[in-house]
Write a structure and sequence with these properties.
The chain starts with 20 loop residues before the first helix and ends with a strand. Helices cover 41% and strands 17% of the residues. The protein is an alpha+beta fold.
Length: 174
């Protein structure tokens, strides 16, 4: 299934931050939505700011327009304020993209556990994210850092406990 671009993506002014505050707010919301949808579609969890400008999401070669580095930074800061992006370094050159927040992933994982009658079961992190049983689930192939954060959210809610096993970490669901 190919990625479906929003109508704005082929509209040249979309690639220039608008001076009017209301227009700019709507534009930034559209950019945030586009960036998260693109990352979700391609299962991207980390972005490099310098590479972002050449990424198809910020560079429409068909209309020969790209978002400036300054504008990309503004979009990333907006995503950060919304809790969908976290910087990996002080220079803000690499970031984690959370197109679904840890609590949302945790909810999906717990729904799967409950639906399959696996409450009170213990899983390794590998089994949960990459096992045959989770094939086809949205959280299949979830990167370990996000999986751990999701499980920590469930642990806070009293629905899971992260445990240390001989070969790494695991989780028990309640």
């Amino acid at each position: 299934m190919s990625f479906e671009w929003p109508w704005q993506y082929n509209f040249p002014p979309f690639f220039t931050l608008q001076p009017n505050a209301d227009t700019r707010q709507k534009q930034l919301a559209a950019w945030c939505s586009l960036a998260l949808s693109y990352c979700r579609h391609h299962k991207l969890y980390t972005l490099d700011v310098m590479e972002a400008q050449e990424s198809p999401v910020f560079n429409n070669k068909k209309i020969e327009r790209k978002l400036s580095m300054e504008a990309i930074q503004v979009v990333f800061e907006q995503l950060s304020k919304k809790g969908n992006l976290e910087w990996l370094d002080k220079n803000k050159s690499r970031c984690l993209v959370m197109w679904r927040r840890p609590e949302e992933w945790g909810k999906l994982i717990y729904q799967w556990v409950s639906k399959n009658g696996m409450v009170n079961s213990v899983f390794t992190l590998y089994e949960l994210a990459n096992g045959d049983d989770t094939e086809g689930e949205e959280f299949h192939s979830l990167e370990e850092w996000m999986l751990l954060r999701s499980l920590q959210a469930l642990q806070t809610d009293g629905k899971a406990e992260i445990i240390t096993m001989d070969d790494g970490k695991g989780v028990k669901f309640f």
